[in-house]
Amino acid sequence: MTRYNAGLSEAKWQKIWQDRDTFTATEDPTRPKYYVLEMFPYPSGKIHMGHVRNYTQGDVVARYRRAKGFNVLHPMGWDAFGMPAENAAMEHNVHPAKWTYENIDHMRGQLKQMGLSLDWSREFATCDPDYYGQEQKMFLDFMDSDLVYRKESWVNWDPVDNTVLANEQVVDGCGWRSGAPVERRRLSQWFLKITDYADELNSALNDLDRWPEKVRTMQQNWIGRSEGLRLFFDIPGEDRLEVYTTRPDTIFGACGMAVAADHPLAEKLAQDNPDLQAFILECRAGGTTEEAMEKMEKKGFDTGLKAKSPFEDRDLPIYVANFVLMEYGTGAIFMSAAHDQRDLDFAHKYGLDVRTVIRPDGESDSFHVDKEAYVGPGTLFNSQWLDGLTIEAAKAEVIRRAEDGGFGKKTINFRLRDWGISRQRYWGCPIPVIHCDACGIVPVPKDQLPVKLPDDVSFDRPGNPLEHHPTWKHVDCPSCGAAARRETDTFDTFIDSSWYFARFCSPKSADPVDKAAADYWLPVDQYVGGVEHAILHLLYSRFFTRAMKKVDLLSVDEPFDGLFTQGMVCHETYQNAAGDWLFPADLTRNDAGVLVEKHNGAEVTVGRSIKMSKSKKNVVDPTEIIDQYGADTARWFMLSDSPPERDLEWTEEGVEGAWRFTQRLWRTVITGCDGLTAAADEPADFGKAAAALRRMTHVSIASVGKDIEDFHFNNCVAQIYKFANAISGFKPDRSDGDAYALREALTCLVQISAPMMPHLAEEMWQHMGYDGILTDAAWPVARPELMEQNTVTIAIQVKGKLRDTIDMAKDMDKAEVEKIALASEKIRQFVGDNPIRKVIVVPNKIVNIVI
Ligand code: ANZ
Ligand code: ZN
């Protein structure tokens, strides 16, 4: 028997699928649709094992749904704008477009080798002018619909490279390239009004019941809805100060006020206070990331001003503090030292009162906070008319009195900020507006879109190449004709990935989307991707879907009905004596079986298994695996060992095991078919073994289908192993029943392994003589009546000792069971001539014969 040749067979079937346009999807309202999407890759150069895992999982779902009769859309594209292309331009002097499209060509080839059931006719890259031109058009629609605005805001500024930095480009408070400490600067930036949808984006999470709970929680925390009070404090001689608090119950514990460095009051006071001015500048150094804010030492500057507590005759000192953010709430707070750790540390540092106003149950009124703030539940005290109330009741009471007195307003606040989308970079989608001294901001007329990136740019100095370009930004104002300037900022690349799923519905449309096509395909039924995108990408896509609905491009609110987040692919790490990391491919085992470096035989230190990463070199190149073992082996291994949401440990042994199984499956089918002729019609009678095999067949169909639907691919793998063993163990006699059962089993084995190992399955299907390709065949139907266990194995005891076991029909009559038991040859030997005193029958289990 010939071995299965994965290399030949995979190329053959990939060509057949391609020639037949097997995976090209067309809208067909008469059929139910199923849209499967994996997060599209960034074209970094080559695919990695994380991609293989992600796309294999999606492909199993897509192929299964297709077999179940769905009209499946399973597209692929490229998230192609972003910094790495510009870095390549700077480091290797290659144009970002060339770098990007060459990477895409290479990676497309790699993905095609995996045998994914993708509709390549819909492919696009977000850097295609055709795509980003539509994005620009949509942005103009958003402008018309009041979803866009421009305002000054703080950015990370690299004072050496003279450029704005994205948060990711700030490493430990310094610019990633220059290494210079980052400053904050105010620049005019474009914003999308995601906060208009904050409440809805939050509440609609409850309906996303096909999303992982943890992702919904992360989004909820990010949106950060809180209910609290805006409370107004009078300051003699100044405007009243508005604070936002979620703990109005602690008002009698207030020890002082704090305002942000960018608060109007701080800015005003700084005008004739150089020390305060210096303090404000100090606050502005050190980047805008939340992490940076979290980490820094909490500092304040006493303004000398006092605010009046609204409920009692007490003055509260006002500080400018570096931990209060202007962008959150009102940019001002009252501090309650005893019930907030940050406030407590601040109070200790600056000698403010610590007034304890909440005591835990069981504590007396002498309870007081010293070093550790009390933030748990309890009862109010030291608080006049709040004394004795619970925290919740006290909050409500303070809110009521503040509103009645006209110095407060109950409010809902969100942590979510509007989305700043301006990037001072070249390799992104140009923002389609023009700045005219006479007319202000003028949108580029739609018939002049796309605003294309210029090709001739240089990266020889820091900053934005579009800004440095000699001619590109100089245009005439579309409105008055005077000399004007193009916007040189480009979009945050998260915009590109916020609507690509919609573009796939009609990738060639002359509008951002063809509404009929989008109405047919959306929402995405199953989205698969990494949990690292649990917050931003998914939230932005949810917002974009709503914004696109507002401008009448879409009809749905939510883009992704089902979401699955896959685990990572991990591998052991290796180091030589000098501590350098080593690639697994550069190692081998010596005669003693010890892992050594190939080139010098030196022993290596094996470290624990962690996520594959280039920096630790614990990576395995998918292409090498596919060349050596075939795509089906790689796919099978990806699915086999761990539940798909968990991390998977990549091992050589595991891959070899998967490869051996492809060979075994092949042998099982070839051997099984050898000389097998089975009637097309189901015979009336089946022997015991045939019935058992049929039960296995139908149980396998049902459980593998269910496990695919539930993303339990490792269980599918386990079931297919069991099923293949059962088939190998089946020795058919010459009866019609046996032949039929065997052929049925082999057919179904091939069919249910197809989503995981599509090439091998096609080859086996062809070998079995079926017409047409397996990928077009329907998923087999599991017949419930054949899945029932209708025999039981009964233990036969003589005087309490097990002497025989007999398979009998389930739920048989007791007298009948007794008769069969007594007729057994073995039992007759043990009973001999002894008179039978009693026979006890425990239904479906035991027969005990007492002699
Ligand atoms: C008084 C108070 C007493 C507070 C207490 C907390 C504990 P969340 O839940 O995140 O909404 N806060 C408000 N605006 C702020 C800003 N711009 N920068 C820094 N902190 C700010 O948190 C709301 C709480 O965070 C508010 O409630 C406020 O401090 C603080 F025992 O007010 B609290
Ligand atoms: Zn003008």
TrEMBL record:
The protein's Enzyme Commission number: 6.1.1.4
Any signal peptide, and if so, which residues?
Answer: none
Q: Which segments constitute the Leucyl-tRNA synthetase editing domain? A: 220-402
Q: Highest lineage ranks of the organism?
A: Bacteria, Pseudomonadati, Pseudomonadota, Alphaproteobacteria, Emcibacterales
What is this protein's name? Leucine--tRNA ligase
By its UniProt entry, which InterPro entries does this protein fall under? aa-tRNA-synth_I_CS (IPR001412), aa-tRNA-synth_Ia (IPR002300), Leu-tRNA-ligase (IPR002302), Leu_tRNA-synth_edit (IPR025709), M/V/L/I-tRNA-synth_anticd-bd (IPR013155), Methionyl/Leucyl_tRNA_Synth (IPR015413), Rossmann-like_a/b/a_fold (IPR014729), tRNAsynth_Ia_anticodon-bd (IPR009080)
UniProt entry keywords in alphabetical sequence: Aminoacyl-tRNA synthetase, ATP-binding, Cytoplasm, Ligase, Nucleotide-binding, Protein biosynthesis
- Species name for this entry? Paremcibacter congregatus
State which gene encodes it: leuS
Boundaries of every Methionyl/Valyl/Leucyl/Isoleucyl-tRNA synthetase anticodon-binding domain copy: 695-815
Q: Cellular component terms, GO, for this chain's entry?
A: cytosol
Q: What is its main location?
A: cytoplasm
Report if keyword Cytoplasm is assigned: yes
Q: Key word Protein transport present in the record?
A: no
